[in-house]
Specification:
mainly alpha
């Protein structure tokens, strides 16, 4: 499900921090013209943190990784 929120700039950062901590929620910022800021440093940092977390869980045996064939099937 895709949801778009328009948040007052005074409370935006605190609301976004809460949303980012919720499992299964992906936050993508857009500028005033509706263009995605997917390459912003904050977005990249969030992605890297999630990737490191996934690797740690996989190494601990708590997360099942996809096989190469499963990844190809998604393409």
């Amino acid at each position: 499900m895709l949801v778009t929120l328009e948040i007052n700039s005074d409370s935006a950062s605190s609301i976004l921090d809460v949303l980012k901590r919720i499992k299964g929620v992906k936050v993508t910022s857009v500028d005033a013209e509706g263009q995605s800021e997917a390459g912003s440093p904050d977005t990249i940092a969030v992605g890297l943190r999630q990737a490191v977390s996934d690797v740690k869980l996989a190494r601990a045996g708590k997360k099942k990784l996809k096989t190469f064939d499963e990844l190809l099937g998604e393409l």
